[in-house]
Amino acid sequence: MNVYQLPLGPLQTNCYIVSNDVKEAVIFDPGEEADIIFNVIEENKLKPLAILLTHAHFDHIGAVDEVRDEYNIPVYIHKYEADWLTDGQKNGSASFLRNQTIFAREADHVIEKEGKMEFGQFTFSVFETPGHSPGSISFYNKELRTVFSGDALFQRSIGRTDLTGGDHELLIKSIKSKLLSLPDDVVVCSGHGPTTTIGEEKKHNPFF
């Protein structure tokens, strides 16, 4: 499998495209610059199956509708942020952006609880990792030994908790119970910045 990391938009929010041997692909957090996403998909002759959102802050959802419409694929989000896609106050764009509010249409599927999700030949374990936002979730692929953590866990840092529904203590609990329980060699693909590993964060992250 391949993982394409695409830092997009002014906040350099990481969109990830994951592909397998039969060219199926899933797309995480298409935040902006849909053309860059399209180029990677077309250049590698990929067949997108779904858009998976780790959470619904504006910098993670700006290109959702463009990508969804281009490939006619469904969007998945956690139930606690299902209404954030259409609400500029909740997704933060009304507060952080000048003269612009970012929206996306409602998700096609709402994730109700933790568990396994399958898309073509992909299998992901969904972990609820709230704290940065109420509906933050992480997606773990055991075969790839990679977890897509959104803005919960970063290299030597964690997500901010001063936005709508943020909770510092809950975020620390989420990371310790869900993410740091994964094997040390698991790669962490964060919503911003470089990738890291679970083992590195156990050793060097100052929040733990």
TrEMBL record:
What Gene3D superfamilies does the annotation carry? Ribonuclease Z/Hydroxyacylglutathione hydrolase-like
Q: What InterPro entries does the annotation carry?
A: MBL_Glyoxalase_II, Metallo-B-lactamas, RibonucZ/Hydroxyglut_hydro
Q: Where are its TM segments located?
A: none
Q: Name one GO molecular function term.
A: metal ion binding
Could you list this entry's UniProt keywords, alphabetically sorted: Hydrolase, Metal-binding, Zinc
| Pfam families to which the protein is assigned, alphabetical | Lactamase_B (PF00753)
Q: Highest taxon of the source? A: Bacteria
* Required co-factors: Zn(2+)
Q: Which SMART domains does the UniProt entry name for this protein?
A: Lactamase_B
The reply to whether Zinc figures as a keyword in the UniProt entry is: yes
Q: Which residues form the Metallo-beta-lactamase domain?
A: 12-192
Under what name is this protein listed? Hydroxyacylglutathione hydrolase
- Which organism was this protein described from? Gottfriedia solisilvae
